Amino acid sequence: MFKRTKVTDGTATGQGPDAENWDGKEVGFRKKSKVPGVMITQYIEKLPEGKSHPDFTRKPIALTIQEGKFAFFKAIVTGDPKPTVVWSRNNGDVSDPARYQSKYDPNSNEHTFEMPHVKPDQADTYKCFAKNEYGQAMVTVVLNVIEVGFKMTKAPQQQAEVANCNFKKVLKRRSKVVPKAEEPEKKEGEIDPKFWELLMSADKKDYERICAEFGVTDFRWMLKKLNEMKREREEEQAEFVKNLSDLKPIHINADGTASFELEFDLLDPSSSIYLYKDGEMIPYTKELGDKMKHCLRKVGRKYIFSMRDLMPEDAGFYQLDVEDVNMFSTDFKMVDFLVKIQEVKAMEREDAVFECVISAPLSKLMWFGKNMPLEQGDKYDIEVSEDKLIHRLVVKDCMVVDKGIYAACAGIKSCNAWLVVEADKGAPKGKKTARKTTRAGGSGTDLQKVAQEQQQILDKEREERKEKIKAAREAAAEAAAAEEPEKTADSGAGKDKGAAVKVERIDKTSVAATTTVAGDSGSGHSAGKASGGAKQDGSHADAGGGHSAGKASGGARKDGSIADAGGGHSAGKASGGAKQDGSHADAGGGHSAGKASGGAKQDGSPADAGGGHSAGKASGGAKQDGSHADAGGGHSAGKASGGAKQDGSHADAGGGHSAGKASGGAKQDGSHADAGGGHSAGKASGGAKQDGSHADAGGGHSAGKASGGAKQDGSHADAGGHSAGKASGGAKQDGSHADAGGHSAGKASGGAKQDGSHADAGGGHSAEEASGGSRQDGSLADAGGGHSAGKASGGAKQDGSLADAGGGHSAEEASGGARQDEPLADAGGEPGITSGLSDIHAIRGQPAELTVKMNTDCDGAWFKDGEPLKSGGGISITKDANIHKLTIHSCRDTDSGLLRFVSGDLSTEGRITVGDVPEFDEDDLHKFSKPVIVRVGQNAAFKMPFQPQESLTVSWFKDGTELKDGGGVKIVREPNHSRLLLRDCLRSDSGEIKIQLKNPFGAVEATSQLIVLDRPGPPEGPVETVETTSSVIEIKWNPPKDDGGSAVTNYIIERQERGHSLWTKLGDVSAEKTSFRDRNVTHGKKYSYRIYAENPQGLSDSLETADSIMAGIMILSGPPGKPKVVSTSKTCINLTWTPPEDDKGVPIIGYQVEKRKKDTNQWLALNAINEPIEDVNYAVKDVTEGAEYEFRVSAINESGAGDASPPSAMACAKNPNMRPCFKDPEDFLVVRAGNSVRVKISYEAEPPPHITWLKDDEPIAPWINVINTEGMSQLVIPSSKRSDSAIYTIKAKNSVGEAFFDVEVRVTDEPKCPGPVELEQTVYGKVAVSWVPSPDQELDDRLYYVVSQHDSNTRMWKTVADRLFANTYTAHNILPGIEYHFRVYAKNDMGLSDPSQSPTWGANSNRVPISSNGVSSMEISFERPPSILVPLKVHTPPKGYQLYMTCAVRGCPTPNVSWYLNNTCINSDKNYYITNSCGVCSMYILRVRENDGGEYRVVAVNSLGKAECSTKLTVRD
């Protein structure tokens, strides 16, 4: 029992400070603890220095534990002086040392409260008190104890003591699911409550799987009841929770734990949550983490239940309840591997297959490759068989890098194997081989067989559940059938509103047709007389096996003995024939309905009366010592007399059922043999054996007299088998008669064989006399096997013998035809049955008629299972001359059985089986009749349940053609249903799908429709133009031939204007309308249209108009005026023209210009019609220099381009003559000495001018290069000097004129610094600054000076004079007491020179130096070599992360710092950002790369020395 505590406000025994331990101080001040849940009371207002009240640094944790376990609480307290700790409980005493122990560990300062072997009554709220003289601290903790064997159905009661000493009974929750140990015995038809609990928490897609698992087939009833239960459950849940959602069933996670989840909001946060497994409560924790197996965590609204350390016993049915209402149920199943994955060796670029078989269906396994989870994709295929037992992983296109360990995980079970990929040695080097189409691997076992065996086990379990459910319904059906035995059963196979059901009734009440054959009368059933023919030695052949309804007489064998009357059932008299020594043979096995007498054995003793059941008298025969043998086994309903044994004593009358008299024949010593077992309804007489003794009258059922024929020594053979008439065995090789064998309803006579003996009259059922024809030696051939309802006479063979009268069923006399030697066939003249009975199948509730036709008018009697039949009780027996009829008006199950007609010694029999045509359940039929609608490329599945039946054939048809398994068709046949799967359906797969169930009683069919949806076909064309005007174009089309399986919803029309590439959507029209009027057209323009048909699956291909359609009638403009050439150049010809005189009343929107090259006939358009030239002039730029052209122009309106104008005069593409002129030249150029000088001058001139360069009006030196190109000239001085400074003149001259232009080139360098600077004060507040000129002043007339000033107040340099061409400067506002410094720079076009420093002016400049009186002073120097203050640290950043590396360096003068990576300087590498600020040297890498790893070194150097430090950088993946 799971006991929960109740916290009371009062103080019970043992709670709080008592008189023994505490001084009674209870008045104090409340204090707040740092630990939540701790209540502190301080006794005094102000604590002395260094003292403190008690407090908890670790409080006890609530505990839920199983009964009998070790429970304990731990606490750590602080306080000065050291507190005393006492434990108590709310409802009880803790003074019993055997149950409660308080301990203290001084090393860890832990106070422990232990409860060994905890009991349920110890569940309570416990309190821990810590007290010293300054106060006390108290904390409460709850202990919950789970009683061993707690059951959800117990409804335990908990007593809670209150102040008034009354007890209230607390009613605990009760669940429908109980533990297996307490499950009551289920009644037949009762459904497990787990079924409903699982359904209420499952998705709708899982309903079918759960129903199949629990054997529920009535889905309509299930859904109706489920909805009712859901409404009730939701009302109960609404009392405690709201917003219940996101239910996820239990599953196994990648970390090996199992969990399930759900979300809800508790209306009362104090509501209790319980977890159960198979009806038993399980403990869980929220705080202890790994110390307990089960855990329930809350994350927001989500509750997550998980369990770790999974074991097989963890499988079960889990539930989560809030108070007494179930919120969620899930079933956790464990599976195992029946066949594990095996090692695979694959060649490179070959597919590898891992496959396994699990013990229970699972939709998905977790596959791992090299410790990484694998998913379906381009590299891996994950396949699952239809029964979800076989799982495969296909590693496609294996490469060497794919080798490793691969694993399959199913819950806590897993298996793994190696994938070994071998390189293709035959592949050419450097080339990638083609992918192989073969697959390597597999388990090496027949997985399908293993899966089928496992599926059979699962199906058997499922069928057992179904049988329990069906039992109640079947019992009710049987009771109803018993109450209304005469009621006619429903002949229909079920009605259905949606499906067309066709039932083919098979009426098998008619008798066989007359057949005349020239072959053997065969094995099988003979309803006539079967006489054994003679064999090679003249003996008669066996009258064959099978069932004989007539007389079976054993024929003679080699030694003249009569052959056995055969095995099988004999309905007449079976007499044992004599064996080799003249003894009679056994009267055969089987059931004898007459008298069974044991024949004598070798010593002359009668043989056993055989095994089987005898309905007559069974007398035990004497044994070797003259004693009588046992009257045999079997059941005897008559007299059973035990025969004498060896000492003359009588043998036991035996067990078994005997309805008549069974007499045992004598054995070798003259004793009588056992009268045998078996059922005998008549007299069975055993024939004599080798020593003249009578053979056993045999086992088996004999309804008549069975006489055994003689064997090799002249003894009679066994009359064996089931014989309903007389069976006479034919003679064998020695002239003995053969066995009359089999089931014979008439006389079976065996024909003679090669030695003149008669051949066997064959096995089987013969309803007439079967006479074997003679063979090569003149013997008669076998009367054959098969079912003969008439007389079968064997025809003659090559030697004149008669041929066999053949196999099969003959309803008339079968006379053997003549063979090559044309002997006459036998023709019997005895009365017989010309048309006998055969096995038929009758439909329940339908009439059945059995007819027997005799060759003479004689009386007969009908029997069913040995009992005589009379008219009445739904049966009519009539006779019309020689035709006897038995009519069953309404067949019932009780009418099934063996019917026999007897007329004298003749009889015929047939079995009637009553059953039903297969039927479909109406709900299943209705569900199947609904069309299956899929899209192209999807799979279509059909499933039809049915009741399991024997001899049931299931066939599937599509549009009348039977479907076979293979290719894209998969047919699955299960005992209770059949499924059809059509893969990758095409539109042509649409049609009628039919399933047919067929058994011997008839056939039933159910039809459905497969509709494969696709996009519709394009609308039928051509597109017709209904109307075209200047403002409207109307078009018309026809609907598509194929609508794609769903009706066309609308048509979409798009339009393209001629000359444009863009298609514009105009709109859509409904499917009923197949025309469209385009009102947004422009007169004269042409348009193309295309139409799409649309259905829910998408758009069809388009139907497009063959030609463009023009809006209205075409009206073209007249020709414009003749174009005129305005100007020409080598790259352009400018044209102009006048508009046309007659525009035909249509506005002109532009012009089209065409050109024709001289000596050609082709006019080329310079602009498209949809890109008209809006102006009446145009610059033709697509010309070739020197070529001659003529031009013409056409006016464009809405209808297109009109007539062209007359062509223009020929124009040549060349420039006109013009005087040279220069374009935007630069007249000044400054170049640093040593660099090259490049002067570029562009010009225009026609014809091209002659270019000349001059330097200072003199020809240029030879080393100066001049490069002339079309329209530009360049002067190049490769390495300039100061002497190259000059004025360069370019001269361009042609036949029209000439032009000049001067360019000043100055070659210079940075100026040298000025000379010494002098200062002189002439006026107060002014200082004259003078300096010696720079040496470059004479060489560079553009050189000037710049003066900067610095004072001790601002301590900054500022420019006070610029562009000074003199060597003096007067500084103003010079104040006393302030030091001034001046710098003078020389500057030209190249930049500033180094400064010339002036002496200090101002304070202390005139101070008299102080004498040291001979004492020398030591100068203090701050210079020092570099040193590393903070070295570099080791770094191991991950790849792609940023890195910041620093160190600290000092030195005077400031050292120069360099960074090195693997002895390579990286100061200039842009991948590293390096700074040095006040001696802190930093290096920053934005994203670390693999090649950034290595040894980093920092080197600091100044004039006094060097220092360095280093570190290593390791880059992690």
Summary, kept brief:
With 1517 residues, the chain is mainly beta. The strands form 25 sheets. Strands 1, 2, 3, 5, 7, 10 and 11 form a 7-stranded mixed beta sheet that branches. Strands 32, 55, 57, 58, 61 and 62 form a 6-stranded mixed beta sheet that branches.
Task: Write structural notes for this entry.
By secondary structure, this protein is mainly beta. The chain has five helices and 104 strands. A hairpin with a 6-residue loop joins strand 2 and strand 3. The radius of gyration is 60 Å and the shape is flat. The N terminus is likely disordered.
Give the helices and strands, then pairings.
Layout: E1 2-3, E2 29-32, E3 39-42, E4 52-58, E5 63-66, E6 71-80, E7 84-89, E8 101-105, E9 110-115, E10 124-132, E11 135-146, E12 157-158, E13 170-171, H1 193-201, H2 207-214, H3 219-237, E14 241-252, E15 258-266, E16 273-277, E17 280-281, E18 294-299, E19 302-307, E20 316-322, E21 325-332, E22 337-339, E23 344-347, E24 351-358, E25 366-369, E26 372-373, E27 380-384, E28 390-395, E29 404-410, E30 413-422, E31 439-441, H4 447-483, E32 503-505, E33 526-531, E34 548-553, E35 573-574, E36 595-597, E37 615-619, E38 640-641, E39 659-663, E40 683-685, E41 705-706, E42 723-728, E43 744-749, E44 770-771, E45 792-793, E46 833-835, E47 840-843, E48 848-854, E49 861-864, E50 867-868, E51 875-880, E52 883-888, E53 897-903, E54 906-915, H5 922-929, E55 932-935, E56 940-945, E57 953-958, E58 961-962, E59 969-973, E60 977-982, E61 991-999, E62 1002-1013, E63 1020-1028, E64 1033-1038, E65 1050-1057, E66 1064-1070, E67 1075-1078, E68 1086-1095, E69 1098-1099, E70 1103-1104, E71 1109-1110, E72 1124-1128, E73 1133-1136, E74 1150-1157, E75 1164-1165, ...
Parallel strand pairs: 5-11, 23-30, 24-31, 33-43, 34-42, 35-41, 36-39, 36-40, 37-38, 37-39, 43-44, 44-45, 47-54, 55-62, 81-88
Antiparallel strand pairs: 1-11, 2-3, 3-11, 4-6, 6-9, 7-10, 8-9, 10-11, 12-13, 14-15, 15-19, 16-17, 16-20, 18-19, 20-21, 22-24, 24-28, 25-26, 25-29, 27-28, 29-30, 32-62, 46-48, 48-52, 49-50, 49-53, 51-52, 53-54, 56-60, 57-58, 57-61, 59-60, 61-62, 63-64, 64-67, 65-66, 65-68, 68-69, 68-70, 68-71, ...
